[in-house]
Amino acid sequence: MGQPTHALTQHDWWRSAVIYQVYVRSFADGDGDGTGDLAGVRARLPYLAELGVDALWFSPWYLSPMKDGGYDVADYRAIDPAFGTLAEAEKLIAEARELGIRTLVDIVPNHVSDQHPWFRAALAGGPERELFHFRSGRGAHGELPPNDWPSQFLGSAEPVWTRLPDGDWYLHLFTPEQPDLNWAHPAVRQEHEDVLRFWFERGVAGVRIDSAALLAKDPALPDFVDGRGPHPYVDRDELHDIYRSWRAVADAYDGIFVGEVWLPDTERFARYLRPDELHTAFNFSFLSCPWDAARLRTSIDETLAEHAPVGAPATWVLCNHDVTRTVTRYGRADTGFDFAAKAFGTPTDLALGTRRARAAALLSLALPGAVYLYQGEELGLPEADIPLDRIEDPMHFRSGGTDPGRDGCRVPLPWAAGAPYAGFGSRDEPWLPQPADWPAYAADRQSEDPGSMLRLYRAALRIRRTTPGFGDGPLSWLPAPDGVLAFTRTDGLTCAVNLSERPVDLPEHTQLLLSSGPLDDKGLLPQDTAVWLHA
Ligand code: NOJ
C-alpha cells in the first residue's frame, strides 16, 4: 500500500493498478485510413504515461474479419493488418514498458472466427469438427436446431445454431461467424495454453479472458431448463480445472488474468478467484449499479465481502466497449446499466451525467483494489448516436434492429480540436462517424482546461500513485447523512461522495487533496460531488 503501483519491479502491482482499455480500432489512426492502429497507439504512449495509468488492456488486435469488432479471431498469433504487424506489437509492448506501463492482451477462448483454419477445415469435413460442437438437428428431417439455448446477445431472437448445406448444425453462442470451441477436447486446451505462452513470451504482463464463464458445455447439449441443475453452458464446474492449468502457465511468467465473468451469484463468482485460478475479474455489479448511495454502498460491501474469503482484490469498472458510456448513463432517469433495457433515443442530461461521472471517478479510484478505465472515459465522452446506416455492431442486427448496439461507445477518439476528424486520423473518414461536437471533447483542448475531465483524471491518478492509502487494503465506513458515502482507507485517506440533494459538511480533515467539483460558498460538499481528504 502506498507503493507506486507502476514500479515495474512490484510483484503484486495488479492488486492496486489502474488499467486502461484500448479498443485499437477507435483509439488513434496512425496511417490515416480511418481505422485506429498500433502506430496510433505508439504515438500516444506519452499521453497514456502522462495520464498515469499502470497498464493497457488491448481488446483483440488479432487477425479478424471483424464480424464482432475483433472478438472473432482468425489467428491468435497474428496482428490484423489493419492494425499493424506482430513486430510493431512487440515494439509497442517494449516502448510501453520503458514508460512504466504494462500490457494485457485479450484472449477469446469460447469461440473462434469462422475464418480460423480449424473451422475452415471442419467445414471441409475434416476431423477438426470434433474441435467444435457439430450436431444433427431435431425434427423429422433434422430441420430444427439441436436444442433451445438462448443467444448470448441479449434481446436476440436469433438461434445459436446454424445449419450447413450437409444438414449438420454448429453451435455459436454469439454470431454465426463465431463458432464455439469444444473445450472437452484436449487439443483446444493445448492450443490455448500455447497461445498464452506465445504472448507471455512477448512480454505481456497479463491476459483478459473473454466470456470466461461460458467455455464449458454440458456434453449432452440438453435443452435449457431454467433454474434446475447446473446450467448447460454458464459457469460450469469443469471451467475451474481449465483455469487452474492456465494459472500454472501464467505463474511461470509472473503474468496475471482478469476474467470477464458476468455472474449474479457472488459465491459462484468468487470461485474463479481462488488463489490457484484467476487473479481478478471485472466487477460488473458495480458497473451496472444505479447512481444511488444506498445501492452503491451495498454493491461495494458485497464486492468486498465476496472477494475477502479468496484473498483476491476487487476491480472497479464504470464502462467498457460493450456498455453505455458513463456520462450518458448517469444523466438518464434510470442510471443503472442493463443490456436488456437498451433503447434508441433514451433522453439524458449530459451536464448532470458528467458531474456524477466525475464524482464516480473519485469514488472508484479510492476503493480498495484495481480500477479499469475505458478509452475516452478520461475525456468524458458521451455515448454517440450512430446513424442507422452506419451501425456495424452485430448486437444491433441480431436484435432485429431494436437494440442500438454498442457502436455508440466505440466512436473514434477526439485528439485535436482543430484537426480533421478531431485529430483521430488525417486522411480518410473514421470507420464510425464522430458527432459534430466531438472537437469540444478533444484531448488537446481538455489539456488546457483546468476544469476538464482529463485534468481531473490526471490529477486523480497522480495523487493515487503518490499518496499512501490508495489501492489494495482495508476500507472503513464513516457515519454520514442519508445519501452520502464516506469512508477512510489507511494513512488518513478519506473519500466522501454526496448523492443527496442537500450540501453536507466534509468529514474531518487537515487537507483537501482533490474534489470532483467546486465546494459551495460555505465550504460544504454539494450534490453529486466527491472529495479526497487527508485526515
Ligand atoms: C464479450 C466482449 O466484451 C464482447 O465485445 C463480445 O461481443 C463478446 N464477448 C463475444 O466475444
From TrEMBL:
Pfam families: Alpha-amylase. CDD domains: AmyAc_OligoGlu_TS. This is DUF3459 domain-containing protein. Residues 21-410 form the Glycosyl hydrolase family 13 catalytic domain. InterPro entries: GH, GH13_cat_dom, O16G_dom_2. It comes from the Bacteria. Belongs to the glycosyl hydrolase 13 family. It comes from Streptomyces dengpaensis.
